[in-house]
Automatic annotation (TrEMBL):
InterPro entries: AA_ABC_transptr_permease_3TM, ArtM/GltK/GlnP/TcyL/YhdX-like, MetI-like, MetI-like_sf. The keyword Cell membrane applies. This is ABC-type amino acid transporter, permease component. Its main location: membrane.
Length: 214
């Protein structure tokens, strides 16, 4: 226990950093994911191509490589931001591709007749998507979206290799201070368990409240 009790502040900063990365990147991923899912089912061909390319590129790019591309590539174009914000961009964009596919699958579960009925009443594509399709799709995508955001929380560990304060990065300081590396990782694992179980509990509540009964 001394590894934890002697380093409350260090573990606290690491856990807070992981929580902040998870929350901000999750918000970005959800927004981009829903937008790209809308693009993928849009009647405009150019939007469908954009959505398809976005998903194909990001889903097939290693996250570590994406971190390098964001942290080293954007400054070459004059975009200079704090490392944490770069990490949020990398994590959020990467995860948005998986959110997009989950939402698109949910959209496909909505009977096409409902969209056709909405258009026959004079509703635009945006109105049909926002008022008819997405609310129903949301109910069926709660579990996969929750699983994706849990994966995002664990993927945030990569940010520690890029000078971003997060939980896994605390082991370096603890190792330098001479603490047991095994127990250092045990308490790091407990921290990640707290984050992931919190996300799981939140989505369990959402699923019970709005999920599709099976």
């Amino acid at each position: 226990m001394n590894v934890l009790t002697d380093n409350w502040s260090l573990y606290g900063k690491g856990l807070l950093g992981t929580v902040e990365l998870t929350v901000y990147a999750s918000l970005l991923a959800l927004v981009l994911g829903f937008v790209m899912a809308s693009f993928r089912v849009a009647p405009v061909g150019s939007l469908r191509v954009l959505g398809t390319v976005w998903v194909a590129v990001l889903r097939n790019t290693p996250l570590t490589l994406l971190f390098f591309a964001v942290l080293l590539g954007l400054p070459r174009f004059g975009v200079v931001l704090p490392f944490q914000l770069f990490a949020v961009l990398a994590l959020g964009c990467y995860t948005s591709a998986f959110i997009c596919e989950a939402v698109r699958s949910g959209i496909n579960t909505v009977p096409t007749g409902q969209g056709e009925a909405a258009r026959s009443l004079g509703m635009t594509f945006t109105q049909t998507l926002g008022a008819i399709v997405l609310p129903q799709a949301f109910r069926s995508v709660i579990p996969p979206v929750g699983s994706t955001l849990i994966a995002l929380a664990k993927n945030s560990a990569i940010a520690g290799s890029f000078s971003v304060t997060e939980l896994l990065g605390t082991y370096k300081t603890l190792n330098e201070l001479g603490y047991s590396i095994i127990w250092s990782f045990v308490w790091i694992a407990v921290g990640y368990l707290i984050v992931t179980l919190t996300i799981s509990a939140l989505f369990n509540v959402l699923e019970k409240r709005w999920g599709v009964a099976r």
